[in-house]
Amino acid sequence: MTGPAPAPSAALSTRALRWLEFPAHLAVLNLCWLAAALPVVTSYGAGIALQVALRAWREEGESRVAAVFFREFRARVRGSLPLAAAGLGTLAGLWLSASFWLGAPGPLLAAATAVLLPLAVVTAAVHLTVFEVAARSPGAGTGRWVREALLLSAARPARCLGALLLCATWAALLWRLPQLVPLWGVSAPALALGAVPARRRADAAGTLSAPS
C-alpha cells in the first residue's frame, strides 16, 4: 500500500523551496570561488573545486556545497598551480603579442590576427575542458587532466566553440550588470558548462582516455 498523497500546499512549498535553493546554492558557491581565487594563482584550483561541488550537488543531491568546495579546494589547489601558472603565462603572452601587433601595418596585423586568434581560442577551449575533466576525475592528476582535455577538445570542437561563446556572452552581460558578479558571476556559467549528462561524460572518458 502506498501512503497518502502529499497535500497540494505541501507539494507547492517543497517546489518553492527547491526553486529558492537553486540560486542560493549558486550564490554560495560563487562567493566561495571569489574568496578562494583572491590570490589569482589559486583561481584554477578554485575552479576545479567549484565544478566538483556543482556536480556533487546536481547529480548526488549534496546540499553542503560550501563544505564540498573547500574540501576539494584544499585537496586540489597545489596540483593545479602548474596549470594556473601556464594559463596566466599564456594569457600574458597573448596580451603582449596582441598589444604589439595592434600597431603594425594592415597586412602584418591581419597575419598576426590569423595566428593569435585561433591560438587564443584553442587555449581557452582546452583550459575550459580541463575543469570538466578534473571535476569528473579530481584525483587523476595534472598530466591526466591535460591529456584528456586535449583529446576531448579535439573530439568536440563544436561544443568547445559553444562554451566559449557562452562565456563571452555571459562576460558581456556582467559588464553591463556588474551587480551579478558577487552572486552568480562564475557559478552560473560553470553550471552551464558542466550540464552534460553523467553518462555522456563517462562514455567520452572511456572512449578517449588511456587506461590508467
How is this structure best summarized?
The protein is mostly helical. It has helices at 8-36, 43-60, 65-101, 106-136, 142-155, 157-176, 181-184, 187-193, 198-208.
Topology diagram in text:
Blueprint: H1 8-36, H2 43-60, H3 65-101, H4 106-136, H5 142-155, H6 157-176, H7 181-184, H8 187-193, H9 198-208
What does this structure look like?
This protein has 9 helices and no strands. With about 210 residues, the protein is mainly α. Helix 1 packs across helix 3 (about 65-100) and helix 4 (about 105-135) crosses helix 5.
Protein traits:
212 residues, single chain
Characterize the main sheet: none
Q: What integer value in Å does the Rg equal?
A: 20 Å
Task: Determine the mean pLDDT.
Answer: 84
Low-confidence stretches: 197-212
H and E string = HHHHHHHHH
- Termini Cα gap: 48 Å
* Tally of DSSP helical segments: 9
Instruction: Output the structural class.
Output: mainly alpha
- Tell me what portion of residues adopts beta-strand conformation: under 5%
Helical coverage, percent range: over 70%
Shape: globular
Subunit arrangement of the protein: single chain
Number of beta-strand segments: 0
